[in-house]
């Protein structure tokens, strides 16, 4: 999904040609949880599974993997895979304690994640994050230093998409940051810049800049309305985050609802079929944009890619028809679950 001159990386129509040929899927792979896998060979095999199934967009950040994600992704995305799109971010980085803890994350892997999930009270998470990560810094000097470091770790002289990483509510860009980012794009060092954060933050940044953002990456799920007018290109993530169990519980207690929507969608909503429907809904909602997935299981990546390829191969009229049904399904779930 590397863009040609004059286009924004990450935005494509269903019939664009990429490294995998026509209609390569619009999925991206998020590397935030890559180090849940203990071995480097396992992690590289997972990235290869994504690429081999048509995924050409990979999302990372300096803080992912306590600073190790970019280097590992860069080693993967070299040679014949050098044509993929890489998005990285700036503004949030790893503290010295986080760097010291880096060697422990792969051996401990899922056990640490499970333990944190078990004790994930807001205060605990905040204290852990304060120890592992530096306070956010969105100044030009920090952005310049982060870009140079990311290029070294990724083994590239150019970053396809450079995103401001999750600015807190109420934090607006320093006055000289947008101009510096525009210059980085004009010089060819960056393909496009954007914001990875809440869409309400994007509204505030857009008003401040008096123009749409080039790229907006934000969380979206079945309860979210489509976002329009805030950016030239959209990347969404988190369509399953905390929602799959909620809807599964609803359908288990309302078999009539499950049977009705399985019939209308012409697919079983039992088992993995529900996740397939939610992914197809997000693809239909984020027209032409990238939908990020994240998994440490190859079979889930293959299944998601199959859904995305099937969606891309639909005729326009069928795509519109199914989008309407999927929207009705999402509305029904939202109303039934309160």
Give structural attributes.
disordered N terminus, TIM Barrel, 338 residues
Description:
48% of the residues lie in helices and 14% in strands. It is built from 12 helices and 10 strands. The chain has helices at 40-52, 69-76, 96-118, 122-132, 140-154, 177-186, 199-209, 244-253, 255-265, 273-285, 298-313, 316-337; strands at 17-18, 21-22, 27-30, 57-59, 85-90, 159-165, 190-196, 213-219, 231-237, 290-293. Helix 2 (69-76) crosses helix 5 (140-154) and helix 10 crosses helix 12 (316-337). The radius of gyration is 20 Å and the shape is globular. It holds the Pfam family Aldo_ket_red. InterPro entries: AKR, NAD(P)_OxRdtase_dom_sf, NADP_OxRdtase_dom. It comes from Acidiferrimicrobium australe. Residues 27-222 form the NADP-dependent oxidoreductase domain.
Question: How is the main sheet built?
Answer: 8 strands, parallel, barrel
According to CATH, the homologous superfamily of the domain at 17-242 and 287-295 is NADP-dependent oxidoreductase domain
Estimate the helix proportion, in percent.
Answer: 40-55%
Strand content: 5-15%
Tally of helical segments = 12
Strand order of the largest sheet: 3-4-5-6-7-8-9-10
- Compute the CA-based radius of gyration: 20 Å
Described by the principal axes of the CA atoms, the overall outline is: globular
Task: Give the SSE order as H and E letters.
Answer: EEEHEHEHHHEHEHEEHHHEHH
Overall structural class, as computed from helix and strand content, comes to: alpha/beta
Distance between the termini: 39 Å
Residue ranges: pLDDT <50 for 5 or more in a row?
Answer: 1-7, 17-23
- What is the CATH class designation of the domain at 17-242 and 287-295? Alpha Beta
CATH architecture descriptor of the domain at 17-242 and 287-295: Alpha-Beta Barrel
Mean pLDDT rating: 88
Q: Count all strands and give the number.
A: 10
* CATH fold type of the domain at 17-242 and 287-295: TIM Barrel
